[in-house]
Design a protein that fits this description.
single chain, alpha+beta, six-stranded antiparallel beta sheet, about 25% strand
Amino acid sequence: MKRIIILVIAIGMVVIWVMAQAVESPNGVALWEQITIENPYSHWSQFPDHTGMQKGQAPHGPLHIVYVNLVGLKKGWPKPDGTVIVKENYTADKTLAAVTVMYKVKGYNPEAGDWYWVKYAPDGLVQKEGKPDGCINCHSVQAEHDFIMVSSH
Ligand code: HEC
């Protein structure tokens, strides 16, 4: 009987360990649905030090608007898990050219702030997603500010 109990406990611990290792794997298509239909980013807030349409730099384009969800509005770094930052990128004549997103997922990429990066076409087509070297390398200049460029909030 004792052995069975020990065996059951051991199996239980293995199951818990395996579940703890299974990190949520984000998905660009699902995330688009989440941020445009379930909880549309157009209703979110903005960083208090970066509101409205602002001038930007290459590669993102000349104009942009940055939205952040409630979780990400928490002041300071690192931002909490579940933070989503959405940047609408516009051409000089204010045509939407792309939507770039940073989504903080616990355990997804600890070496680079656990951000999941996505670039969408204006219609939501995923153009890049995951841990693209380009996004991470450039944003690394702000590694101490959780890879965030536009805000010190
Ligand atoms: C060569 C540098 C560079 C690359 C590459 C780059 N970014 Fe950025 N990113 C910036 C700069 C600079 C800003 C500040 C706003 C602006 O100038 O448009 C920014 C701002 C952002 C923001 C708003 C939040 C913040 O960090 O301020 C998001 C979201 C974002 N980038 C996503 C991405 C994604 C996704 C990729 C890859 C597909 C990417 N970026 C690639 C330089 C870069």
